[in-house]
Each structure stands twice: as structure tokens, then as C-alpha cells.
Amino acid sequence: MSKFFPYTSFENGFYIPESTFPSNIGGSCSKPPVMMSEKLWFPTTATPEEKCFQFMAPSYPKKFKAEHAGADYCRDAESPVYAICPGTVMKNYTAETNYNLKLLVILHNYSGKDFWGHYGHISSDLKIGDRVQGGDVVGKIASSKGNIPHLHFGINARKMYTIYSDKDSKGRKYGWGRTPVGVHPDSVGWVNPTTFFKDPINALQSCMA
């Protein structure tokens, strides 16, 4: 069990209602990655059900004034993060000192379909252009004094997002982890990771248009 649980609130506004996560969430978990299918791996040693913030979490907009465009999987700092399938590193912002800006972007290909995996709040030594295979360790969950350590994992079927990629109609910036309130993540290409791991091809196709 992670030393951070069972908090119901945390410094700097990170909020996790205790009822929203199972009792076994967290932990250092040195187990090997979970193989979801013959060609697909899970990005942490958590499971798809072990989310501290789900995709489009109902409590998220009130707390953060945005929609959640990925899924958060809580594990202790330094726990490994895995590539979900083969790909090429496109961006590495994990040297950023701000925990909320740490990001690794990998252009993945699954069964002939390209998409961008966004691995947030991690540290990584990978360089742009590095090739990875499914199940490879691509980094470790970063530590933070103000947040519960976790991997924010986002999948976009249309484009690569960076720290701040877009602006909404009111000029508000948003990027790889969030969309403005009222802008559903799938309308700009974000795929629900839980849906993806159940049916990757249909999940990607539904967000490509």
C-alpha cells in the first residue's frame, strides 16, 4: 500500500474521494507489466480499474476548471512506466521541474493505426527518435511534494499535444492533460484509455474523425 493512501484530499488541490479507488491501489509494485493482448501492454503495474482520476471524471471540472483528458494510475514514485506497444519518442519534457509539465510523447502504431501516447508526470532518459517496443520501460513515475505520485496516461488519435498545444474560444490555453470545461476530450481526439484497452481499433476510429 502506498504511503500516500488513504488521503481524501491533498496539498495544492489534488482531490481524490476515497470512495473512488479500490483499497489495493498504490504501492511500489515491481511486478512485470500486464500484457493486455498479444500486442498491447498496460503502462503501469496497476490495472485498468485502478484509477485515481478517470477519463472525464465528474469531480474534475469543479476542482480544476477543466475536463480530464486521460486516466490517472497511482503508484509510488520511481515505479516503472511501460510502453503500451511499439513506437517512436517524439517529445520528452520530463526534465521540467514543474511536476505538471513533465511529459513523454510516443508515436505508437497498433495494427497499422498511428496514435500518440502521452505519458505524464514521469521521468525518462529517452531521446527524441528512440524506438521502443511494447513492455519496454520508458520511464519512472516522478515524485512530487504537492501531488500523489501517478501516471497520467492519455491517448490521442489525431495529433500530438505538448505542454500547451491549443487555445479555446476564450483564449484559455490547454494541452496534454485537460480540455476546457464543456469541450469533451473525444471531440479533439482524446481516447478513453479504459475503452482503448478493451477494444483498441474501434476506440481509435471513433475519435479520428
Automatic annotation (TrEMBL):
Q: Which Gene3D superfamilies match?
A: Glucose Permease (Domain IIA)
Q: Name one GO molecular function term.
A: metalloendopeptidase activity
**What InterPro entries has UniProt attached to this entry?**
Cell_wall_metabolism_enzyme, Dup_hybrid_motif, M23ase_b-sheet_dom
Quote any Pfam family the record assigns.
Peptidase_M23
Describe the location of the M23ase beta-sheet core domain by residue ranges. 67-158
Return the CDD domains for the record.
M23_peptidase
The cross-references to PANTHER family, in alphabetical order and at most eight, read: MUREIN HYDROLASE ACTIVATOR ENVC, PEPTIDASE-RELATED
- The protein's name in its UniProt record: Peptidase family M23
Q: Which organism is it from?
A: Azospirillum oryzae
Organism taxonomic ancestry: Bacteria, Pseudomonadati, Pseudomonadota, Alphaproteobacteria, Rhodospirillales
